[in-house]
Amino acid sequence: MSAPSPTAGPAPLPERVEVVVIGAGVVGAAAARTLAERGRSVLLVERFERGHEHGSSHGATRIFRQGYDVDDYVALTSEALAGWRELEERSGRTLLELTGALDHGRPEMLRGIEAAMTRGGIASERLSPEQAAERWPGLRFEQEVLHHATGGRLSSAEAIEAFLDLAVVAGATLRFGVRVTAVEPIPATGTTAAGAVVRTELGDVTADHVVVAAGSWTPDLVGELAASVGRPLPEIVVTQVQPAHFPTAVAADAWPSFVHYPDDGSSVYGLLTPGEGVKVGLHGGAVHVHPDERDGLAEPEELARLTAYVAEWVPGVDASAPHTISCLYDLSPSEDFVIDRIDRIIVTTGFSGHGFKFGPVLGRLVTDLVDGDAPHPRFALAAHTPPA
Ligand SMILES: Cc1cc2nc3c(=O)[nH]c(=O)nc-3n(C[C@H](O)[C@H](O)[C@H](O)COP(=O)(O)OP(=O)(O)OC[C@H]3O[C@@H](n4cnc5c(N)ncnc54)[C@H](O)[C@@H]3O)c2cc1C
């Protein structure tokens, strides 16, 4: 009689790689792909399962838009547009549908966005509220509307799959269900270069570079380290946000992606998710959470605010039938991203509810940091916490 075979556990992790990427949200997935395609040996570790819903990147759709009021963001949207098209070509998937994108509401917001888009060479058009209502009957307008045709809808879950698949094609190893418990720098010695050790539940991995793409969890993983070397992260406020899908009978091609700047100073976004309804969300979120301690439930007052908004401003949906979603925002004080390096550890967080559209660019920016380039000035740690 043969001996019983030992229970097969998870395969061990490699002891050493060039780059460990922590997190398989859009940032980690895009980074793993670009790093691997630039010839790095990459191990991506993600604590949850592939496609999980615990972070910021899940769900079928995200808005792609070029409507920012700041030149460098506008330029990055143009790079991202080309990047998404290239990703479609490489992956054979359809990822970006240009449904057009609208901004409406506070006139000073529209003026700033229009001016920056014009400086960035992006065509836009102004419409009166009446013209806009005729063209997009699902929405209500009180003020002028700014439309650009190069905005639309990303198939976000598909996009992450495309990044991950191409990362594997380029040689990356992906491991799901592996939680990183610590990231520790290894200083350079006379004979060895600097690096870092990534401690996980399955053992330690030594790497030349570590990319912390852990979104709302990044401060937990590297906040203390950053502070200890005098380069603190900005305060990242994590909110549990709760947009909802609403059923609609309005034709799919009459739904652009939209952002509304109501007079109360808030902003509200929306777009059609085919097969699920029109997604509408209040930007920001009032429910502060720790990412490990959230209930995923819709907060009744927030939901009431959302449905009241929808009843007033989105006549093309049934405001009485919301299907809520729970998601995390990692808000930096300026809502600018953090993408910088602390020696060999690349730190990313603070995507503040608007990072997805930049996916291919985020992969490029992280990879440039690994290659030794300076950070993008807007996303540098120093830009968030200027010296006192
Ligand atoms: C409701 C909602 C709507 C949005 N709409 C838009 C939009 O229309 N357009 C747009 O451009 N952006 C939008 N955003 C923002 C965009 O989705 C986020 O900025 C982006 O997804 C952030 O990605 P991330 O990779 O940084 O974070 P995440 O997706 O949270 O990824 C971080 C990953 O790290 C993993 N991780 C954390 N800790 C560990 C650990 N210790 N070990 C291993 N793995 C770990 C997590 O499990 C997670 O998978 C929206 C966000 C939300 C929540």
Explain this structure to me?
By secondary structure, this protein is α+β, with helices and mostly antiparallel strands. It has two domains: 16-98 and 154-234 and 334-388, 3-Layer(bba) Sandwich (FAD/NAD(P)-binding domain), CATH 3.50.50.60; 101-149 and 237-331, D-Amino Acid Oxidase, Chain A, domain 2 (2-Layer Sandwich). 28% of the residues lie in helices and 27% in strands. The chain has nine helices and 21 strands. The protein has helices at 26-37, 71-91, 107-119, 129-135, 156-169, 218-228, 300-313, 359-370, 381-384, and strands at 16-22, 42-46, 61-64, 96-97, 101-105, 125-127, 145-148, 152-155, 173-176, 180-186, 195-200, 203-212, 237-241, 244-246, 257-261, 268-273, 277-282, 323-324, 327-331, 338-342, 345-349. Strands 1, 2, 9, 10, 11, 12, 20 and 21 form an eight-stranded mixed beta sheet that branches. A hairpin with a 6-residue loop joins strand 15 (257-261) and strand 16. Helix 1 (26-37) packs parallel to helix 5 and helix 1 crosses helix 8. The longest helix has 21 residues, at 71-91. The mean pLDDT is 96. Bound molecules: flavin-adenine dinucleotide. Flavin-adenine dinucleotide (FAD) binds next to helix 1, strand 2, strand 3 and strand 19.
List the defining traits of the structure above.
single chain, 388 residues, alpha+beta, FAD/NAD(P)-binding domain, D-Amino Acid Oxidase, Chain A, domain 2, 2 domains, eight-stranded mixed beta sheet, 9 helices, globular, binds flavin-adenine dinucleotide
CATH fold annotation of the largest domain: FAD/NAD(P)-binding domain
End-to-end C-alpha gap: 74 Å
Q: What does the average pLDDT come to?
A: 96
Q: Please give the CATH architecture of the largest domain.
A: 3-Layer(bba) Sandwich
Strand content: 25-35%
Principal-axes geometry comes out as globular
What is the top-level CATH class of the largest domain? Alpha Beta
β-strand number:
21
| Multimer state | single chain
